[in-house]
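Nucleolar 27S pre-rRNA processing Urb2/Npa2 C-terminal domain-containing protein structure dump, as promised
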Amino acid sequence: MTSKSRTAQEDLAELEKQRAPFDQQLGEAAKFVGVDLATIGRCTQGVIKGGEKLRIAIYHGREEWLLKWLLKRLHASADVKPRNTPSSWRLLCYLLKVLPLSTGARALIEKKFMSILKQTLEEVRTSPREVDMLDAVSASGSGSEEEKKQRKPSKKRKHTGELVGSSSCQNDDLPDLIGAISSVMDVIIASTKSTASTSEEGTNSSFSAEYMKTVIRTAAEEAAVVLGSWISLCQSALEIGDPDTENLQSWIAPFIEIWNSHTAEAEETSLILFSRHCTPPILSLLRAVKDRKFSKFDWAPQLEQLISRNIMNPAKAAKWVNPDSDLLSRLTKLSVLQDTANTSQLFEVAIRSIQPHGSRRRRPNDDTWLQTVFKALKDAMPAQNAASNRKAIGALLQCAIDHKLGLDLADLQIMTSEYALPEGRDSWDLLATIIKLDANVFLIPNEERDLLKELLDRITKTSIEDSWTLLSDQVVSEVLVPLMGDFAKARDLPGFLRHWLAQLIEFDRLRKEARRFDMGFGAWEDDALQSQLSKLLEPSLTLQQITQILDWLLFEVTEHPDAVCILLEAIAGSIHHEEVVDTIGLRLYRIMFDNGVSDKLDDRYKWRSWRILSRSLDWLMTPDVSELAKLWGQVPRVKPFKSLLSKGLSNVIGNASPLEKLEVVRFLCAAWNSAGKDSPMEASCKPFALNVLRQLAQEMKWRTGELKGGEDLGSEVCGSTHNALEPGLGWTTWSLAKSVFVDYPKILELGLELDRKLFKDMLQNVFWIASASIPENSVASIDWLRLNPKAYPDLWMTILHSENVLNSEPLIEILIDTMLQNQTNISNPIIRSSGTNAFAVKSLLQVPVSLVQNKKTRERIFRSWLPTGDSAADDSQGLSYKSTALDPAVLSLKIKFMQRPVLYEGMNFKELVHLADTLAHAEIPRRQVNLALLKEVTRLTFVFVHTNIDQPPQKAYISDAFKQIRKKVEKASEKNKYRLNYALIMIFGAAFSILQTKATALDDLNVITKDDLDSITGTFKSGLLQQLKEFLHRTRKEKSTKRQTSQLTEHLTILSIMDALGALGVDPSKVAELGDDTKAFCSRVQDTELHIGKRLETFLAVHGSNIIEEELLEGDVSTVNGRQSITQKVLASMNSKDKLDKLKLLDSIFGLGLVGLSRLDKLLAARQVIISMEDTRKAAEEEENEDNKKEDGVGLDLSEAYSILCSTLWKASGVRQFCVISETLELMLKTKGRSLTQFNIDTTLGSITILCSRNSPPLRATRSGTIYLHLCRLLQSVLTHHRLKLQGHFHLVVQVIQSLLRLLFTPLPHSTSNALKHFGSPPSWLSSPKHQLNGKHAAAFARLVTLICDPSVSSVRGSQHNNLTSATDKAKRMAGQHMQFVLTIYIKLQLEMRMLPEIREKMVPGLYAIFDTTTPELRRAINDALDASGRAVFATLYRDYARFGKWKGN
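C-alpha cells r here:
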C-alpha cells in the first residue's frame, strides 16, 4: 500500500507540473488514499455495492495530506475547474467522513472553507445560463440601476485570455454539482451536532462539534450571499432536470443552518442583508414549489419559515415597539420592485405566521398588523407597472379571501378607484375579487367618489360595446350576480332593484343613441340576474316590502314600460310561497296590461310580457286562473288576448319575432297546464293549445328535412342561456319542443285529440332527431347535432319519466309504437343505417314494465330485434338474430320485460337456438356478458312456460324445445366431429335445470316422460364431460393447429360446461378423474379476464370431492369470480356437516389468536358458514353440557362468534374488512336473533360508539360515508329486530345516537379545545375536510331517530304482550324520556359547530319525531336547561314543528 501511495503521489506531482487536466489529477489523488472516484461517488451518495464499504482511517496521514491538497486547489482563485467539478466535492465529502472530526475541521478553517463555498456558488450562479436569466429579469424593467450593475457579470480574464466564468460548469452538470456540494454540507452540519461519545483522539464530541461550528460561522453578509446563491442554484438545477437523488428534501437545510450561525451583528443590518441577497430567490423558489413544478419534495414549510423569521416576525416586533418603524418597507421593497408577484407570497407568509388564539382566528392587533403589511406591499409597487400591479393586487386580495381576512374599507375603496376603476380602463377580474372580499366597498358610500354608480354605469356602457359578447359571462356571473347577493345580505334588495331599473333605462337610451337595435342582450337583461333574484326575493323581503316594490313599479310603468317589464318578468319567476301568491294574485298582469301599457312596449321587449303571464300561471291559485280565463273570454277582447284572436287559429301569432312566438307558445302551454277539467280556462285555451301541437308537428317536419340536407340551423347551444333576439332555427324549434315535452307535458294528452297521423309524425320526427344525436348512431358531418348531442335525447327521455305521460295508457302505447317502429335507422331520413337503433333500446329500458298493460304491445317488445321470417339472414328492416344476440342492451330489454312475460303466437325455442348459434360464431369483445344475458333470457322463458304447464301453448313450447334439445344432444353424442358450441351448452343447461324441477308434472301431463328426460340429461352430461376432457387433454402443439378454436371460445366452452354440470349435478368420481388433466391445464393456461384456471380449480374442488379441506376455502376477494369461488366451496363443504361440525369449521376459520379475521377471504368463508347454520335458542341440556363440549374441542357458538366479530369491528385495519364484518353482524342481527344474547346487543352499541370516537381505528377518510352508513344500518337492525332487549339499556342507545349525531357536524376552523373536549373529536376516518358527510347520511340518521320515536308494532310487542295496553305508546313514552338529551345536544352543536344546509334539511323528520314524543312539561324542562342562545334555537325549532310537523287532526 505504501509503495502504491508513493507512486500515486509522484504521479500527481508530475501531472501538476505538466498542468494536466484537473480530472486526471483528481483521479491520481484518489488513488493516493487507495480508492477510485467511482467508488467515492457511490459511497457519498449512499449507493454501495457488495464488498464496498466506507473505510474509517486509523492512520490518516495520507487522507489529511490529500484534504489539504484538495482544499488548496479549491481555494485557488485563478482556476475555477476544481470548484466546478462534482468529483472534487465528492472526494472532499469522502475525506471528511474518514478523517477524525477535529482534523477535518482544522483543515477547513485553515483554508477558509466558507470563502471557497461562497466563491464556488457565485461562479456557478454567473454561468452563461444564469446570466441569461438575470438579463431576462433586467429586461422586465423592474429593479433599480444599482441592482442592475450588481447583477452584471464580471469581465475579468485569466492569464490565458479566457473569461473567468467561461470554465464554469455546464447546464447539464449543475444538478450533479449541487448534489455533490449538498453531500459535503450534510457531513459538515451533521458534525456540528454534539453527542455523548468520545472520539478516538480522546476529545469529547461536544468540543469537536463546537470546533466544526467555527467552520460555518461567518459574517452575516457572507452567510446571506451563500444562502441566496444556493437557493437560486437549487431552482436552476431543478428546472434543468429532475435530479435522481433521495436527499432532495434536505438540500437547503444545511444552508439555513449556515445563516442561523452567522456572527452577531446589528439586527437590522443582518435582516437587510437577508432581504437583499436571500428574499428574492426564496420567493421565486417558493412560488415554483407552490405551483407544483417540483413534485418530489415540499420545501414550502422551510422557505416560509425563513421569510417569517427573518422578515415578518422582526418587522412585526419592531412595529410593536415603535409604531413609526419602517423596517417592513425596507425589508420587502427590493423583492416587490424585482417582481410584484412576490407581494402575494409575502402576504401569505405574514398571515400564516400568526398563531390562532382559542376560538378566534386572530387577535385585533394581528388584524392591524396584517393591514399594515398589505398597505406596505401595495405602496412598494412601482407606479409605472399598472398591469402587473393590478394582477398583484388581485393576488393579495385573493389571499385575504382564502384566509378570511378583512381589510380596511377606506383603503379598499382607494385601491378600487386606483386599480379596478381607473379612467379609461376596466379590470373585471379585480372587481370580482373585491366584491368577493368585501362588497361594502360599493355598498357604503364614499365621500370622494360614488364607486357603486361608477361600477354600474361602466357595466351598462360596456354592454353596448362590441366586446360585450366576450365579457358578458364574466361581468354578469362574477360581478353583478354576487353584487345582488351582497345587497340582499345587507337587507337592501329593494335598493338593488332601483339601481336595476335605472340602469335598464340608461342602457335603452345608450342603445338607441348608438342605433344598435338588433344587438344581443345586455348585462341587465341577462337571465342570470333573474335566476339570482328567484333565490333571494322571498327569503330577503317581507310581504310588505314586496308589495311596496310592486307599488313602485306601478308608478314607473307609465314612463318606463320596457324597463319595468324586465323587472316584472324577474319577479314573476321568483314567487313560490303561498302567502306571497295569495297577496300578489294578478297584480303583475294588471301592472303590465292595464291602461294600455303593453302597447307602449318596444318590439325588443314584447316577448317578455308574455313570459310574465306564463311564469305567473305556474303559481297562480285556481280563483286567479279562473279570473284570467274570464278576461280572456271577455268582450271586447283585452290585452294581450286580443292579439291572439286577431291572428286566427291557423298561426298562433302570425309574423312576430321568434322569441315572441316562443313565449306565446309557452303561455298557452302554461295556461293548459293550469286549467282544471271543464274549467273556463280549458275552454278558452283548448283551440290554441291544439294549434301549438300542430305548429310543433310542422316545425319538427321542417327541421328533420333541413338536418337531412345539412342546412345551417344556427350556432346556439341548446340548454345554455340565449343571448340574441334572432336565435337560429335549431334553438327555436328545440325551445318550442322543450315547452311541450319538458316544461308542460300535460299538453301531450291533448295530442290524442289531433289527427292520429299528425301527432305520431310529430313524435316520430322528434325521435328521429334524438336517434341521430347519440354517439352510437350520429353522423359526424351534421354540425348542429355535434353541437347539441343531448338536446333531443334529453327531451325524449324526459317524457318517459313524466307523470302526465305515464298516467296516460294511450299515450304510452303511441310512444312505444314509435320506438318499436325504429328498431333500426333504415327509416330515419337523417342517417339511413341498417344497424340497431341504440336510442330505441335505451328508451324502452326507461319504460316501467308495470305501465305496459297492452298484451300485444308486450308481444311486440318480445318480438323486437328479431327477423320476421324463419331465416336467420337480415330481413327488410335490416334485422337478424345478430341484432339481439350481439347487443347486450337488447338482451337486457328482453330480461326486463320478462317481469310480465307473454307467450306470443309463433314463439318457439328455435329463436333461442338461433341466438345461441349467432353468438357462438361471432367475434365480438366481452362475449361472456352476452352469454350470461342469453342464459338469463332462457331461464326466465322456461320459468314462465312452466307456470301454467297444463295450457296447450305452454305444452307445445316445452315439447318442441325438448325435441330440439334432444336432436342436438343426440347428434353430438353420435358424431365425433360435431360438438355443441358454448352458447348452446349454456342455454341447454339452463333449460334442463328448469325441466328437472318440473319432471314429475311433465310426466303426469304426458309432455315429457321422466325416463326420456333422465336419459337425455344423462347423455348431455356425459357429452359435456367428454368434451371437457378433450379440452384438457390438448397439448400445446395441438393448440397451434388450424382445427383448434380461438382461446376465448375454448375458455367460454369450458365455462359453459362447468355451469351446466354444476346446475345439473355430476358424479364426483368422474370429475375427480380429471384432476391431473385440470392441474396441468391450469399450470399452462394464461390467466385472462375470465380467470379460467381458478374457476376450473374451484369446479374440481366443489364437484370432485366430498371433503373440502380448509385450505381450499381461501381465495382472491378482489375479483367477483374469486368471491364466488369462496362461496361455492363453503356451500359445498356444508352439505355433509351438522351443527357441531359447522361450529368446528367456523372456529378453525377464525384461527389461533383470531388471525383469520384479518383476512378478507376467511371473513367471507365465515359469513357463509354462519348463514348455513340454523337459528336456535340454547336448550337447558345444552347449557348444562357446555363444559363437555369445550372438552371435545367445541368452545364456540353463534353468540360467542358474534361477540368476537363485534370486538374485531372496532379494531379493523381496513375499510373492506370493516364492511365485511359489519355486514356479517347485520346479517346475524336479522337472521340469528334467537342465538344472540343481551351481551351481544350491548357490545354492538359499544362498538358503534367507539367507532364514532377518536379511538376509532385509522380507516381511510375517502370512505367516510360508507363507514357511517354501515354504522347506521347496524343500529337500525338492533332497533328493528331487538327492541325488547333495549329495555333498561336505553341510555346506551342515546349514547350511540349522540355519537352519530356529532359526526354530522363539522368543527369550525378554530373551535375551542373545550368545545371539542365536550362534544368529542371526530374519528380519524372523518378528519379530512374533503370527505365529510352529506344529506344522504343525515337521512339515514333521521331514519334511526324515527325508528326510536315511532317504532313499528312488531318491534316492540313481545310474545306475551297484553293487548289492552298499547306497546307503541309505551315505547314512545320511553323514547321521550331519553331522546330529550339528543335534542339538547343537537341544539348545543348548532351553536358550537357547523352543519351543511342539506344535512339540516334531511334532519327535519327526525327532529319532528322527537318533538312528537315530548309533553309540554318536558319541553319546558328542556327550555329551562338551555342558555339564552340555546333557547332561541329551541324556540325556532318548535315553531317550525308546530307549523309544519305537528299532527293537527282533521
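The longest strand covers residues 833-836.
lmk if u need the other ones
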